[in-house]
Amino acid sequence: MSYRTLLLMVLLVPAMLLGGAKALDLTIPVPIWGREYVLYFPFEDAAALVELPKVEGPDDPSRPLVVIDAGHGGRDPGAVGTDADGGRFEEKAITLAIALALRDELLRQGGVRVALTRADDRIIPLPHRPEIARLLEADLFVSIHADSAGSQNEAVSGASIYTLSTEASSEAAARFAARENDADRLNGITIEGASANVSAILVDLSQQRTQEDALAFAGLVLREGESALAFVPQPRRSAALAVLRAPDVPSVLFESGFVTNRDDRARLTTPEGRAQYAGVLARAIRVYFARRAQPGEGGE
Question: Please, which residues have CB within 8 angstroms of residue 31's CB and are 6 or more apart in sequence?
């Protein structure tokens, strides 16, 4: 039997059967599509793939929740700097130490719940970081990073703070976003299905109020850190950073400094320096939540 003959049979036989049934005035019963006819195939819940961290602090869900994200980790060291003695300084260790210091400071002051995306040296896939904040229904997401200016630009120093934008605020911000958004590929993890269209949709979904809140918090960090930390010129920056794309959680990325700069390293790698960062961020967080608790209050 040829392929053409088989195809004709597949197409014509059902039609002939229906035509004959009509000529004989027969009724062909149609099944009732109820539960017994439907096959259910369980799919693993995408949220189950995200390991949710422990929430610390007051046992009161009405208290605001901050999710602190220590950038990089595991096989991905992030930015790397070295000193004159050959010492190696990795961003993943610096960001974790600052995140832990900030957590401890917030818990010491009380009144705020805290969760860390990672509390040790492990890989957290880039899309999971903001998703953790969303699943925990966080009130604020703070991602902590450090940067590198390369061995030829050791004089570059200072902190900065990023909020989400479809357009980078500067060429430096665009380069930084490209590097950070490639973190999963550096980790050996590929984000399946990611595309420019998906990214654009996620950015569009970011609510106006959420972005306003993120900008307000960024301003508070700059105000509280003005006399305690060194910032780069024009420290308020924006970029299309994947880690900030939680549409319903105000999110910022705090760039703590440059591992390639000697003065920044002194702050980034010492208990005293980390306490300064933690103090500034903790004060900004408390002022931010205090203002949100007062109707009509906003801005800086």
Answer: 37
Looking at residue 189, what DSSP letter applies? -
Partners of 88 in the β-ladder: 82
Residue appearing with tokens 């604020």: 140
Range of the structural domain that residue 100 is part of:
46-292
DSSP 271-284: HHHHHHHHHHHHHH
For 183-197, the pLDDT digits (tens) are 554 443 444 454 555
pTM over 0.85: no
Q: Classify residue 163 as exposed, middle or buried by CB count within 10 Å of its CB (0-12, 13-18, 19+).
A: buried
In a domain, 20, yes or no: no
Write out pLDDT tens, residues 237-261: 998 888 888 878 999 999 999 999 9
CATH number of the domain where residue 81 is located: 3.40.630.40
What's the token pair of residue 102?
């900030």
In a domain, 11, yes or no: no
- The per-residue pLDDT for 36 is 40
Strands (E), 27-73: 65-70
Spatial CA neighbour of 251 closest among 139, 109, 102: 139
Dig out the tokens for 136 from the structure: 């925990």
Q: What's the rounded Cα separation, in Å, for the pair 255 and 243?
A: 13
Residue 42 three-state SS: coil
